[in-house]
What we know:
The chain is an all-alpha fold. Helix content is 64%, strand content 2%. The chain has three domains: 5-68, Orthogonal Bundle (Multidrug-efflux Transporter Regulator, Chain: A, Domain 2), CATH 1.10.1660; 74-106; 112-240, no CATH class.
Amino acid sequence: MAWSTREIAELAGTSLRAVRHYHEVGLLDEPERRANGYKQYGVAHLVRLLRIKRLVDLGFSLSQIAAMGDADTHPEEALRALDAELAATIERLQRARVELGLLLNQSAPTDLPPELGPVAGDVEMTEADRNFLVVMSRVVGPRALETYAEMLRTTAEEATLPEFDHMAPDADEATRQSVAETLAELTRGLYEKHPGLRDLDADAPGGARHAWQTAGKALVDLYNPAQLDVLTRVHHLVRGA
Length: 241
């Protein structure tokens, strides 16, 4: 008894295209041909094709199946490795579902981590401030994220300064100094209420240098020259105090 390519594909529950691809990559031996040139598959081909399909359905790649060879043995090591990989994938997907639930229930932004998203969504801030928060969330550690979240929950509104947010790029000296002094006072208040703000780089995954270099690049990109000058003055005022 011999089957055509279409018949063996139907028996195995796969497609003609898949059978032909298995031939091309060397997973399935080419069968003999009839006098009319049509392929004729036997039981050995069907058994091999069923094994390939079963392994593909389980999640093995074709290269992994090829590495197992043609022998119909029990690939215990490969099965255990795949089981561990699937377990890790399931765990990741479960975490993703939890995070999706938070995003849906709390209408949280998708570009911030779970620690900050729900909180930041309830706080009014400029686009520049929000984008800076997004950048910093990528370079600071868990402790810093917790500090940021606590600050946003309790004192974010107190720390806003419209004069800084809407400062013109060519603001004069008096305006810059006045805004800097006001902002420095607000910053000192934040440091008193949230001491962790003083060492946001303490557990930065890439190290303190990388965190502050990233912050510097973000500041230059997000704020105009007058605002950057004010931030520099604030830094010196607060550090001097």
